[in-house]
Request: fold
Amino acid sequence: MIRKNQLLSFHSSIYREKGSKFIGYTYGVFDDADIPPILEQLKKDHFAARHWCYAYRLGENGARYRSNDDGEPVGTAGRPILSAIDQLNLTNTLVVVVRYFGGTLLGVRGLIDAYGGAAQQALALCETAPLPLVRQLRISCSYEQFSEVQKIINELLLKPRITYEQTGLILHFIGDLDAIEPAQRRFESLYHVNILPIDEEIE
Reply:
């Protein structure tokens, strides 16, 4: 899978076009429920503004998304903001652009450029990094087999939580996808090592 990026810092910036002021705000969010309180606060802070348009993309794969034109012509605000998020391959990201109307109509093309430009400008100030993809792996093995398991653990610099039982050991690994997937392939090649189902949440 293509790894998404995430925001490490959050910024705001002002974009001006023919008298209108577009203020772009960036946020890190993880759930749809995070959005309404942010919008509510921005509407209080900018009660004299005309529009509060936004877009967000959520989830490990960025599969959950939404864009909102907030009264602007359809497709002229939310979509350009979402496009700015997607240009940086971001997820768990919300961008809100607050517009103060300057008295001059911008037209469809002008609005698209202004909202997209405001979003791009704010996001350009943000620090980003690849999104961690946390995975779990549980295996069981006999005490006799543990030396081979230990060799893989040392080679891949893994730090499992180990449970000792009468018949053998259970090892629980939590780590990034890039570490867990190779480990699973190696363990699957060992005789008497079993891959166990995951029955607990990641802490």
About this structure: Residues 5-130 form a domain with the Ribosomal Protein S5; domain 2 fold (CATH 3.30.230.30).
